[in-house]
Amino acid sequence: KISYVLIEIFAKNVKTNTKLTSIYLSSCYIGNEGVLLLINALKNNNVLIELSLYKNYINDYGIEKMLESLKTIKALEFLNLSYNKINDKGAILLSEFLETNNKLKNFRIEYNKIGDEGATALANALQTNTTLITFEIGDNKIGSQGAIALANALQTNTSLENININNNKIGLQG
Questions:
Q1: Which residues are registered as beta bridge partners of 80?
Q2: Closest by alpha carbon to 56, among 66, 47, 46, 71?
Q3: What share of the chain is helix, strand, coil (3-state, %, to 5)?
Q4: Is the pLDDT of residue 165 over 80?
Q5: Residue 23: how many CB atoms within 10 A of its CB?
Q6: CA-CA distance, 139 to 128, in Å (whole number)?
Q7: Fewer beta carbons within 10 Å, N or C terminal of the chain?
Q8: pLDDT tops 70 at residue 174
């Protein structure tokens, strides 16, 4: 676990670094406040390609607050938000990000609490997104309705090569 003071120092130094292309802050449990410090420091970053915030207790509130800055990271191709506390509301917000993003190639959001409503919103975003190659949404709470929406998105999506929806509550109808 990283303390708030340490993430504050890290964020301050990240803001001035013009060569950093990857940040992996996995299993640091920095929460919404720590993530917001970091993501605001990355605002208008032109070089960051990979950002992993795996297992940091980010919830829907954190997603909502970080999206404005996240949209300004111009080179971002890999985003990992797995093992957090993201529900349908956060997934809906992330779907709006995916609809307009034209750089992201790999998006991981496994092991959260996303259900049918969030999966459907993300599926709608996949229908218009033309850059995403890998989409990982396994181990959530997606049922038949969300699985069908994701399957239907594959009919129109022209870029997706890999999708992981394992260990959800799909059932026989999905």
A1: 52, 108
A2: 66
A3: 45, 10, 45
A4: yes
A5: 18
A6: 24
A7: N
A8: no
pLDDT of residue 78: 98
Residue at 70: amino acid letter: L
What's the confidence (pLDDT) of residue 19?
A: 94
pLDDT at 134: 98
User: What is the sign, positive or negative, of the torsion defined by CA atoms of 25, 30, 34, 35?
Assistant: positive
What is the separation of C-alpha 50 from the centre of its chain, rounded to a whole number of angstroms?
Answer: 11
- Cβ pair 7, 34 in contact under 8 A: yes
Going by C-alpha positions, the residue among 24, 38, 114 that lies closest to residue 69 is 38
pTM, rounded to two decimals: 0.95
How much of the chain, in percent, has pLDDT values that exceed 90?
93
Under the phi-then-psi rule, with left for phi > 0, alpha for psi from -120 to 50, and beta for the rest, what region is 167?
left
DSSP string over 100-148: H-SS--EEE--SS---HHHHHHHHHHHHH-SS--EEE--SS---HHHHH
pLDDT at 41: 95
Could you give the CA distance from residue 1 to residue 149 in angstroms, rounded to a whole number?
37
Which pairing describes strands 22-24 and 134-136: parallel, antiparallel, or unpaired? unpaired
Give kind and range of the element (H or E) at residue 65. Answer: helix 60-70
